[in-house]
Task: structure prediction
Amino acid sequence: MAIEIDQVVKELLSVDGDKTVEKACEGIRDLLRNKLNRRGLVVAISGGIDSSVSATLAVKAVGPKRVFGLLLPEQDSSSNSLIRGKMLAEHLGIEYLVHDIAPTLEPIGCYKWRDEAIKNTVPEYGDGWKNKITITGGTEGQVNHFNLVVEDPNGKQFSKRLALKDYLQIVAATNYKQRIRKTIEYFHADRLNYAVVGTPNRMEYDQGFFVKNGDGSADLKPIAHLYKTQVYQLARDMGLPDEICSAIPTTDTYSLSQGQDEFYYALPYKEMDVALWCLNQGKPASFLAETLGVTEEKAGFIYKDIESKRKTTAMLHWQAITLEKVDGPISSHNVWG
Amino acid sequence: MSTEVKLRSYILESYLFSDDQSLLDNADSFMEKGILDSTGIMEVIFYLEDEFGIQVEDEEMVPENLDSINNILAFLDSKK
Result:
């Protein structure tokens, strides 16, 4: 039976926009005042919905003069991302800087390591070709595995399963992008005595869709408790430009346009939000099946896939673990045993 | 070396960092026991392809074929 996903999202996930914004802003101010002791906020703005809403909350919390925006494109970034990022920064009236990170990524070997792994899979890959990675398996009850999709200069696309070592090398190489960006964010945060805002939504935070010591690193994460559809709702409620509110979420990391669902979640974000909400509310697979209009077996696979990703990525959330308790201002959850 | 011994050694050495045979029962679920996560299962798939010269098809990448020593032994048998 076909379901109207927007209606389902509205019924299950819509929030009181004003109250949610007010609470987030109070939380940001409270953290800056009582925990972080910094004078403002650095936000890297990708042009996507999450960083746009995070930056807007930052401005609402502390005012535009205490928020510094960074736009950090590289050679695989979409030009639309930069356009939307600038549009947001100007809409918010904040100071911002555009810093192209490609000249930093090149000598460190980001593109070379990536292309070497791609050529192991597709030897003819070279200049003028584009690439992306897609995920498959998890929602069909299989082990998640990854395909490389390439497009030759004539626009012909084809796909091939990636060997694990090549998949890991491509991801490791592209992770340089998030890690270099974070280095730049902290440079500016240190220079200004500001805190760094991390911009994951709840789905990304829960499912570990971030790079450790890359976009996963931050001093505060003001929308990590909000489902992605709620982030979209807040964007509209706070009056962000239409181009941002209607932007389709992509990774903006690979040269071929790549939806986050293709790369990581294996479900479109609205369905993924509903599935995660149902699991968090303790709803049985039969409830999810009925809600999404899928079989109970498939709903069970979706739940298993969510739980499997939680398990696989748990260590991305952890700080380094000490073997014995170290007395001092260090929280005990980082001690083994 | 039998397939079973080879497989057990691979799992024990690569994931449990031990040669203590008592740490791994042939019926143990790798995922449930926390021995392997999904990346670990992918590693096992590529180990099986390299070591035993088989091709694991997409539809064969299911826990029933890969999630314990017994499951893998049965799967390898079925590929003969």
